[in-house]
Design a protein that fits this description.
It contains 13 helices and four strands. It is an all-alpha fold and about 350 residues long. α4 packs antiparallel against α6 and α8 crosses α13. The strands form two sheets. It has a two-stranded antiparallel ribbon. The radius of gyration is 20 Å and the shape is globular. The two termini are about 35 Å apart. It binds protoporphyrin IX containing FE. Protoporphyrin IX containing FE binds next to α4, α8 and β1.
């Protein structure tokens, strides 16, 4: 962590154009310190640790962190869409049979062939990291851990400091079935359905609201949005959607069968910031599931709180740690895949 903050200061001038420089680096010191304080204070409220640890690979693969970070940052520098892809990839892994890299497997009828995963990407980044790791520490680091670390590093790239800490020690699953993906929440679910989906994974209301903040970056296919804009050929705008913002969405998705994409955060689409929450309060949440957060009093209060960036980063960090623990395989369960797309042959 120290090294990453130092890197943030050293690289500050490169980031001035993106709204920060030295001021950003110092701001980050405050945020990260606050995050640690909040984490420590609330540690007792977190679920018991399922067998993961910080620096699990300290002895077995000491260069893990630097390899994952350097490969991820190089790829994100070339493709600003990757942080959103990798973050969603990690989420879709954890919500289906736990964080076991089952989403990465290339087998018949695999998770990645299921409807909700057709627009998921970032697999090639995990492959690139795994290739390097297999040269340095063969057979040691799980694909599930690589995915958790890469998601964190990709999102953290814009800050040049780690936005959250990742526990490691996960092992890889051997089963990947499209039919298991019905545990993923629907973008058309109401508040109760969304909360139930999170509770089914051991997550709570706070986690639902904090993790939905991931929609501060990335895109949605028009098909995820057009039911809020059209009924057949007729315009029919969801009353939970601001009408001016609905028109903006329609300019990218002009009919119920449009095939393009829209930004999930119509304001600062590439910045991992708390602007998402302000937009949800202003009826500018892009998905119906974003809008649903304002439909429950307790959730709406949290949405209001998380418009504060420091609170958002602290809450997001805590909830990512919890999500990263969902149904993990540890100890002698599962395996350490040699290739992330295939289970080991022996
Ligand atoms: C609360 C329930 C959630 C629902 C219903 C939901 C649904 C969706 C949908 C429908 C999309 C657009 C997919 C498409 O149309 O192609 C999307 C994108 C995305 N989701 Fe979620 N999501 C939820 C929670 C989360 C969580 C917990 C995370 C991560 C922690 C996350 C991260 C993302 C990201 C980063 C994108 C953009 C992906 C990209 O640009 O490639 N989502 N989500």
């Amino acid at each position: 962590m120290k090294r990453q903050l130092g890197a943030g200061r050293a690289e500050g001038s490169r980031w001035r154009g993106d709204g920060g420089g030295a001021a950003t680096a110092w701001w980050w010191v405050a945020v990260v310190v606050l995050g640690h304080l909040v984490r420590s204070a609330r540690a007792g409220l977190l679920e018991s640790n399922p067998g993961l640890a910080y620096n699990f690979y300290q002895k077995s693969c000491p260069s893990l962190d630097s390899i994952v970070r350097s490969v991820t940052w190089a790829q994100v520098a070339a493709n600003p869409a990757l942080p959103a892809r990798l973050l969603r990839l990690h989420f879709h892994d954890c919500f289906v049979k736990g964080c076991d890299a089952s989403i990465l497997l290339d087998v018949a009828q695999s998770e990645k062939t299921a409807g909700p995963n057709l627009s998921v990407g970032g697999y090639e980044v995990i492959d690139a990291i795994k290739t390097q790791l297999e040269q340095t520490c063969p057979g040691v680091v799980s694909c599930a851990d690589i995915l958790a670390l890469a998601a964190r590093d990709a999102v953290s790239y814009q800050f040049k400091a780690s936005l959250w800490q990742v526990e490691t020690g996960r092992r890889d699953g051997t089963v990947s079935l499209a039919s298991n993906t019905n545990t993923l929440p629907s973008p058309f679910a109401g508040f109760a359905g969304l909360l139930q989906s999170f509770q089914n994974r051991g997550l709570n209301l706070t986690d639902l609201v904090a993790l939905s903040g991931a929609h501060t970056i990335g895109v949605a296919s028009c098909s995820s949005v057009t039911p809020r804009l059209f009924n057949g050929n007729a315009t029919s705008i969801d009353p939970l959607l601001d009408s001016a913002y609905a028109k903006t969405l329609m300019s990218s998705c002009p009919s119920s069968s449009a095939s393009g994409t829209v930004n999930l955060d119509g304001g600062t689409a590439l910045k991992f910031d708390s602007g998402y929450y302000t937009r949800v309060l202003n009826k500018q949440g892009t998905l119906a599931s974003d809008a649903a957060l304002a439909q429950n009093a307790a959730a709406a209060q949290m949405v209001q709180d998380l418009t504060n960036p420091i609170k958002f980063y602290a809450a997001f960090s805590m909830s990512m740690k919890k999500m990263g623990r969902v149904e993990v395989l540890t100890g002698t369960n599962g395996q350490i895949r040699k290739q992330c797309r295939q289970v080991n042959s022996s």
